[in-house]
Design brief:
This protein is α+β, with helices and mostly antiparallel strands. The protein is built from 2 helices and 6 strands, in the order ββαββββα.
């Protein structure tokens, strides 16, 4: 029999026999799983995007730090499309965004280590979330299959009742 993991009061999973649910209940479960899969997929995409930004920061810190010279004119990004000219005062130190609008001055080696740590942490989170998305998607497929079978059975029963009348 097909079963689905639910949540009881302690947050532990409990199996629910999908065959015992009505079509309406299965539709509700399907909608809930659809929402969860969509939300988790969005979160997955956001984590991958964040990891990409950290990789780009790491690449810049590693590649550019050794080639920059003091008092060199550079373009400083204020937004994605607005840059201003500035002079590099210290090529050995960079400002690192550590989150929630806070910046910390670090030497390029420490900055690279910070970004490498963030990339590894996100990779772990992405991998875990990927497994959850796959499990939820598998649950969704099972619910859809049971729902399809129930609808077909009810249609067949309705057709059989009409023919015998």
């Amino acid at each position: 029999m097909a079963s689905r993991s639910g949540q009881d009061k302690q947050g532990q999973g409990e199996a629910v026999d999908l065959a015992s649910l009505s079509v309406q209940q299965l539709s509700t479960v399907k909608k809930q799983l659809d929402g969860e899969v969509e939300h988790l997929s969005t979160s997955y995409a956001q984590l991958v995007a964040a990891q990409g930004k950290f990789k780009e920061c790491l690449r810049i810190v590693k590649d550019r730090a050794s080639t920059l010279e003091k008092d060199k004119t550079v373009l400083v990004p204020l937004t994605n499309s607005l840059y201003v000219k500035g002079k590099l005062s210290d090529p050995e130190h960079v400002l690192v965004d550590v989150g929630t609008g806070f910046y910390v001055e670090k030497d390029t080696t420490s900055a690279a280590e910070f970004y490498e740590g963030k990339i590894k942490e996100l990779a772990t989170n992405i991998q875990g979330l990927e497994g959850i998305v796959q499990a939820k998607t598998a649950n969704l497929r099972v619910v859809e299959e049971v729902l399809r079978q129930k609808v077909l059975a009810s249609n067949a029963a309705g057709t059989g009742a009409k023919q015998s009348s």
